Description:
single chain, Immunoglobulin-like, 14-stranded mixed β-sheet
Amino acid sequence: MNLSRCFIALILGATVATAQESAPPTTALTIYNQNFAVARTTLNLDLHSGINNVETNQVTNQLEPDSVILRGLGQARDSGRNAAKPSFRILEQNYEAAVVTQDFLLQKYEGKTIEFELSPGTNVEGKIIRAPSLHLNQNGGYEQTPALIDVKGQMQFQLPGMPLFPATTDGLLLKPALRWQIASEKPQKVDAELAYITNGLNWEATYNVVAQSGGAAGEGAENANMVGWVTIKNNSGADFPRANIKLMAGDVARIQPPQYARGFITGASEAVMVNADNVVTQKPFDDFHLYDLHRTVSLSDGEIKQVEFLDAAGIQVERSYIYDGAEGDQQNYYNGGINMDQNFHVGDTNQKVAIVEEIRNTEANHLGIPLPAGRLRFYRRDADGQVEFVGESVINHTPAEDTVSVTTGSAFDVKGARRQTDFAVDQQHRTIYETFEIKLTNQKSEAVDVKVLEHLYRGNNWQIEEKSADYDKLDSHTIEFPVQVAAQGSATVTYKVKYTW
C-alpha cells in the first residue's frame, strides 16, 4: 500500500480573527499543591490514510515528555473491556522545548561573527568565542558563565551591545511543541484527548481569621469570622485562555526528576482577585480531596489568581497559653538507656509563654469541611473596631471533625521560669531523683490559664513522687499541669520525679 504523507499543524488557542472562528479550546487543569498539574485538552485530528505528522505548540515548557497521553475520546472515557478499538496508532512522539532566546541564539552562533548594536545606527562586529551558559557549582546550585566576545582583536566578558542575528536563521522554535507520527488505516476526523503532567503550576490555601475584641485566655471561646482563599500560580511557560480548574489537596507520591537548569522568569507577576460567582465545592477522591472551582477562567503565564473558597461567620475560637520551659526537647534517652547528666537542658530555659488559638473544624462550629494545608493569619478587632494583625502560622491538611491549632506568638505580659532544685543519682539502686520548680508571672489585668508542659526525658521508667498540683499525662514522656495565674500575680508548680533502670 502506498503511504501518503501529510503535515497537519494544530495551533490551539490561536487568536480569534473573525466572529465565525471558534473560541480557544478549553483546557482542564488539575493542579496539585506540590508545584505540578495534569493538563487535558481536545485535539481535532484530520487524518489521512497512511503516515500523518501532527503538531501542537500549546503546551508548557515544563511538560514531562514521558507523561504525555494522546488517545481517541472513546478510549479516554472508557478504558475497560468495552473500550473501542483505537482508530489510529502513534508511531513516534517528540517534544521540542528549545525555545529561541538570546542565549540560545548566542550558543547557536558560537564561533561565528555577528553584529552588535552599540546605539541606533552604530554597529560593531564581534566574534562569539563563548556563549553564556549555566553550570553546576560545588554546592549543587547553578552559576552563570559569562559570554566571551572578540571585538577588534580584544577579548571581553560582556556583550558589546544588543546582538543582531540574521533573519534567515534556521531551526527557530518560538514555542515548545509536541509532534507525533500517527498511522491511520483510513481517512478520518478524530477527536482525541491530550493529557500530560507539567511542572510550574501550584496552588496554596490562605486563611484570614478575624476575632472580636477581648477574648482573654481562660474566658472561654470567642466569636470570629474565617475566610479562605486559594492562590493559584502559573509559571509553566504557557497561557491557558480557557481553563476549567480543579485543585487536588494531599501528599501525592512523586519521583523527583533531576533538576536541570531552566530559563529565568522575567517580568512582574500579575495578581488577580476573582469573586467566585459559583461556590467552590470539594469531594473525596482516592485518599485525597478534590476542590472544583466550577468556572472557566483565563490563566496566563506568570499570573497569580486568587479565588475565595470558604466564608464562615460566627465560628468559635479558643485561646490558651502554653509554657514549655524545656522548649520541647525530644531527646528522651541517653545512650539508649538513662541520662545521668545533671545539667542536661536545665540551664538556660525558655521564658516565653506561647499563645495558641484552637478552632474546631466541625459543622457545629460552622465549618466541617476538609481544610487544605496553608497559611493562617489571625486578626483581632480593637476597642475602636479596627482590625489588627496578631500573628500567623501554617496549618497542615485538616480533615473534618479535627481541630486547627496554631501558635500565633508569645505573650508580652505572661512569663515563665523553670529551674532544677534537686538532683540525685543512686547507682546502687539504679535510681535518679530530680525536682523542678516552674514559676509563672502574669502582669495582665485579668487571670489567665496556662498549660505547663514538662518532658520526662531521662529514661523510659519514671514516676512522679511529689507534686504541688494535679497533672495530665499526654504521652509516655510528657505531662501537663493546668495552672491558673491571678491578675498581676504569680503561681508556682513543683514536682519530684523518680527514674529507674
